Amino acid sequence: MHQPTPHATGDGRLAPGRPAPSPEGAGLGPPSPDSTGVPPRPPKRGATLPRADPARAPHRATHRPADLPPTHTALICVALPALAISTEQGQLTGRGLEGFYRAGRRLLSRCRLRVAGREPLPVQARMTGADRARFVGTLRASPVAGPDPDVVVERIRHADGTERITLHSAAPRPLRLPVEVALATDLADLSAIASGNAGPELPATVHDSGLRWTRAGENSSVTAHPSPADALAAAGLLRWEFELPPGGTATVELRVRPDGGGPVRAVGRAATSPLAAARAAGDDPRVPALLRTSVEDLQALLLRDPAQPSDTCLAAGAPWRCGPAPAEALAAARMTLPLGTRLAAGTLRILARTQLTGPGPRTGMIPGPRRDAGAFLPPGCTGTEATLLFPAVLAEARRWGLPEQETEQLLPTAERCLTWLRTTVGEGPYLHDPQPGGPIRCETQAHAHRAALLGADLLDAYGRPGGDGLRQWAQELRSAFREDFWAEDPGGGRPVAARGPDGRPVPHLGSAAVHLLDTGLLGAGELAPGLLDKMRTGQLARLFGAPAMDSGWGLRGLGAKEAGHNPFGHRTGAVRVQETALAVAGLAAAGYEKEAGGLLRGLLAAAECFGHRLPEMYAGEQRADGNAPVPHPAACRPAATAAASGVLVLAALAGIRPDAPARTVTLRPMHSAPLGEIVLTGLRVAGAPFSVRVSRLGLAMVEEAADALQLRV
To answer: What pairs with residue 83 in β-bridges?
Structure first.
């Protein structure tokens, strides 16, 4: 079910001829060190780079990676596998990424409208949903008109390949308006377009009531209703002439399709969408908009598995990563458990079919690509993260209401993941990077610790062996971790980001440490113990709340005082929305509501600046009066983890901790009520609607729940 994904450099920029995925990876492949074009490790400070010898390599040339086409101001309509990318002008000119896409192929690159021989003056462009945008333009058509426009042109553009153009006349007398639309395409792949290798526009032929283009077995057509009065294939023009009475309207609808292709049936628009249409209300007007937009974006990013169309998972993000990335798909599914368990179940089933079962040390892994980790560490393995997330997501989905039968069907896959963990760790306390000579990463130990505890809980629930061994190893890991992964300093200390093969610490402070706060949900509303003790958890909370880490818009990927800090570095200073959301939820659960509230308010302020559609990351520049968060040019928007983060942070305000097998739910709301009163409706717990209200005093009350579901205090 992998969608075409642009090639990327290690920092996420698309470049021709580079087989590596984007920073978070979008492909499905074995997590071997050389399987996904890992970028070379940067040289150590002070090292001398070898000089090129022209005599020995006379034909070798170096090329700078091509910069990504700008999309941070684009209006991106998403209903996967379809996209429509537009600028604020409304016209599709064929420049950059503009156009209608399906499955990574551009079906239409140019759609320029002229009315009475002129292009309408653009006056407004806005998203009206995750899959559609509205453009408004005006012009003066009456020969005796004054300065006021008398024709309004409205264009509604849908990701499914439909555009409706409506002319509204406000002229006092009838108007005769000639209308023409210039169409073209190159049928190029998204990766070729992004790297500047799209190729020329193709010649058109008249087809049905529109135009058609063909190249190497690929084709695209545009049909129009009503049929045009004239179609000029050589110029790519469709023409109409309308008579508009005073106050009259005329409409043209264009439909872009591959030959034989019907309208896109987006998973999220189906009646059987796996995500509940939750709603929010409260004192802060940003809260309803954030949840509504987050749910719409999640629905737009849903993909079906061709092998099992009833199973769905989330694509990583648009426009750069319209295919599934295993670790991100699982992380997003876990964050959206308050919207129901069906997405988590589908994601788990899809990835269970990819699990490696042959002989060898990777048996039991969920394969995934390499992920660039910034300048301080070599690329990491998302397959390791996905493998550790699998049993944790299954265990928590069961607590939220995943039916026992479905849990039992997925349990063997989770057992193999846990067996891989114990086999790979061996006799030592740590899970090493699978790359030979790789580091021991802080966040990997956090993922492994959570997987062991939640996995043991899951095994015990079904009478499977191995739970005691996992808990014993987790205890050994906690003891060793607290000694080896904490660097003392006059400020109270900090967690160590990693330890190299030689045992030396990598002490820089980054947002990857948020995973130390993300412990996981056990039964009876209890959280699993974390790798840090209470004192060090408090110190980490203070570090996250300090200006060096809290940019005012969210948590920086690397502290502003650290060497190598770059506010645009996707691992060295940019604000990553997922990690900020995990920090909010983790700090709130640990009782550090002041720091959690500060990060939450910053994230909400950033969301408002982005029209409540959060990108996966943005620059970690300091917030100040009058400024706004600066977009990151390589960020996906919408992105699965960013959209899911909106669900996570709002659910964290209520502190919902369900235990569906025991028919109980525990509420641990943020007593400081940082956003005032909030009401969440349409959530799902134990397979039934669930609604909760948190008052301005921080008191939570269940307003709707499944029958026999008991509130636990």
So the answer is: 78, 101
In a domain, 357, yes or no: yes
Residue 2 in any domain: the answer is no
- Per-residue pLDDT reduced to its tens digit, 639-691: 999 999 999 999 999 999 999 999 999 999 999 999 999 999 999 999 999 99
Task: Give the N- to C-terminal CA distance of the chain in Å, as an integer.
Answer: 44
Amino acid letter, residue 711: L
* Sign of torsion over alpha carbons 682, 639, 595, 619: negative
- Assess if residue 349 is contained within a domain: yes
Contact status, residue 22 vs residue 320, Cβ threshold 8 Å: yes
Residue 347 is part of a domain; what is its CATH number? 1.50.10.10
Are 410 and 433 members of one domain?
yes
pLDDT digits (tens, 9 = 90+) for 414-444: 999 999 999 999 988 999 988 777 899 999 9
Q: Which amino acid is residue 35, in one-letter code?
A: S
Phi, psi of 508 (to 5 degrees): -65, 150
CATH at 220: 2.70.98.40
DSSP state of 109: -
Domain count of the chain? 2
Listed in sequence order, the residues at least 6 apart from 275 whose beta carbon sits closer than 8 Å to its beta carbon are 268, 295, 298, 299, 302, 336, 339, 340, 342, 343
pTM for the model stands at 0.90
Q: Model confidence over 443-480: pLDDT tens digits? A: 999 999 999 999 999 999 999 999 999 999 999 999 99
State whether 325 and 250 are in the same domain. Answer: no
Does residue 511 contact residue 549 with C-beta atoms inside 8 Å?
A: yes
Same domain, 584 and 695: yes
- What is the DSSP code string of 576-625? EHHHHHHHHHHHHHHT-HHHHHHHHHHHHHHHHHTTT---SEE--PPP-T
Average pLDDT (228-242) is: 95
DSSP E strands in 170-209: the ranges are 175-184, 205-207
| Residue-level pLDDT at 513 | 96
